Amino acid sequence: MALHLPPETYLWFKTFHVIGVVVWFAGLFYLVRLFIYHVEADALSPDAQAVLKPQYTLMEKRLANIITTPGMVVTVAMAVGLLAANPGWLHQSWLHIKLAFVALLLVYHLFCYRLMGQLQQGICTWSSGKLRALNEAPTLLLVVIVMLAVFKAQFPTGPATWLVVALVVFMALAIQFYARKRRRDAEQQALSQGA
After folding, report:
1. Number of domains in the chain
2. Residue 187 domain-assigned?
3. Residue by residue, what is the 3-state secondary structure of the chain?
4. Annotated binding-site residue? 17
5. Is residue 172 in some structural domain?
6. Tens digits of per-residue pLDDT, 14-33?
């Protein structure tokens, strides 16, 4: 049974849900980028590490606690409001699939907190390359979640969909290859300067 809410209430829920999603994803994208910089600081001089590591720790905490997690809370709270206004959605398979991907995103969010704690304690074993790959996960989740929200039960499976998926995968791989090339170039430059 749907709640009898004024029509604009649904639009307010939807507005703040979209805002929450944007804030949440922006935070997740930048948080792992900070993790990469934090890990790469290990290759710097002890003096540089003494300055940068505490700064990255502070930035990570602030980003996670002031932007990313509140974005997640707003997203989830407004989603509950949307479902209260449209309880029939709870019986539709597209929503079950979307919620499964959102659950994966929540696990990713919590995993980022775990990595943040490990970085603060100096016990993180993730390389910058692995973190770069991890940073692509929310992009894939974002694409699927948004497509499910927009298309609902008419989720497209035609060539255009596979083209979009291929483009997203290509972009993720291109970023990985570019980062690897930059690392190799930097290593070669360091070797040539040391010789």
Report:
1. 1
2. no
3. CCCCCCHHHHHHHHHHHHHHHHHHHHHHHHHHHHHHHHHHHHHCCHHHHHHHHHHHHHHHHHHHHHHHHHHHHHHHHHHHHHHHHCHHHHHCHHHHHHHHHHHHHHHHHHHHHHHHHHHHHCCCCCCHHHHHHHCCHHHHHHHHHHHHHHHHHHCCCCHHHHHHHHHHHHHHHHHHHHHHHHHHHHHHHHHHHHC
4. yes
5. no
6. 999 999 999 999 999 999 99
